[in-house]
Task: structure prediction
Amino acid sequence: MFVAFAALTLAACGTPSGEMGNNVMEEVGNIVAADNTVAMLPAELTTTAGNRMPQPFVGRWGLTSEDCTGTAGNNKGLMVIAPDLISFYEARAAVRDLQVISPTEVRVTLALTREGQDWTQETPLKFEEGGTKLSRLVDGRKLQYGRCGA
Result:
């Protein structure tokens, strides 16, 4: 929490408050420590966020370490989160709505497309194990991802 506050404070240095913008999540930046843990979201971000993923969630996530290092075809558990799009092995999902539940959890509504099929899915994304894992609940099944290295 201190890291996120420090990042916000530094971002404000030298910038008049009128020029900061209204989206605090964009000001926080991607806060990932050297040990690959994720700084928790500041408590003030626990409101509806629209359709932009908070930066700590953005990145490459794998169900296994091979998903992070594998080549196309053998990385079926790779999930790539961008601010407004989540990519899976054979599907793309536009972020249609996002609600910040807590400093460590968001609930996202996805508009998925795969091989000509379109559907909507609501899923929570939650940091676990001190921010080293990201869980996703799909059809009653919990999937747990680890952040891929740079």
